[in-house]
Amino acid sequence: MNLNERFNQVLAEIGEAAMAAGRPADSVNLIAVSKTHPVSLVDELAQLGQVHFAENRIAELTEKQAAARATGLQWHLIGQLQTNKVKLLNAGTILHSLDRLSLAEKLQQQFAADNIRCLIQVNCSGEPNKSGVAPADFDALAEAIAKKPAIRVLGLMTMAEHSDDERVVRRAFADLRELSERLAAQKIFPGYENWLSMGMSGDFRYAIAEGATHVRIGTAIFGHR
Ligand SMILES: *Cc1c(COP(=O)(O)O)cnc(C)c1O
Q: Which InterPro entries does the record cross-reference, listed alphabetically (predicted)?
């Protein structure tokens, strides 16, 4: 399959998963993860109508933002961000990996005049090598972020465990949804949009079944890295 065919297959599978969950197909947004792939493929996919793109490294993100010929793209940063690299982030990018207070403090300093849209990343699977705030520390972090007016929290992000057990994978996604519902009820973030950024090439069907609003898909669109 070529890029066009893989892209359309992914869109169809997202639509089917949404229907199966009793959700409208357009309630799930596709974020194309272009990491390690050339910017020419970003432009090619943009030609086919794709708007949302993500990178996991800030250096590669800024390179592609500068080099892409397509206009009107929405970029997302989905990998860990070191505080000393916050200055490289531009205000139009949506950050999915806000996971600690030191990063929130740096973002507040850097974007005091602008606002920066963020998702709080939660380590729902509890794996020690995964980034994201532990669910037990989530409330304290959310309350601290709520005191930083430059940070506009839109929702939450997680990565599930790599597992063949559907229940294990879905539990992580369901946990994120429950955290988000609780957060929305607390009303500590004005303009909270209940975004649930969850699901990758291997598990996006389960994520959609559990309420994902944004799936982050690389391999199934661009091929192996
Ligand atoms: C690479 C990456 C993805 C996409 O993974 P695929 O398996 O290639 O679809 C999604 N989320 C994050 C945080 C990633 O780093």
A: Ala_racemase_N, PLP-binding_barrel, PyrdxlP_homeostasis
As a whole number, mean pLDDT of residues 185-192 equals 96
Is any ligand 1 atom within 6 A of the Cβ of residue 106? Answer: no
Asked if the model's pLDDT at residue 77 lies above 90, the reply is yes
35 lines ligand 1 (CB under 6 A): yes
Superfamily of domain 3-222: Alanine racemase (3.20.20.10)
Please tell me what DSSP assigns to residue 188: -
CA of 217 to the centre of ligand 1 (A): 6
What pLDDT does residue 129 have? 87
Q: Ligand 1 pocket test: which of 31, 55, 56, 196 has the largest number of ligand atoms within 8 Å of its C-beta?
A: 56
Helices (H), the chain: 3-20, 39-47, 58-67, 101-110, 138-146, 166-186, 204-209, 219-222
Domain boundaries, the chain: 3-222
Could you read off the pLDDT of 201-222 as tens digits, one per residue? 999 999 999 999 999 999 999 9
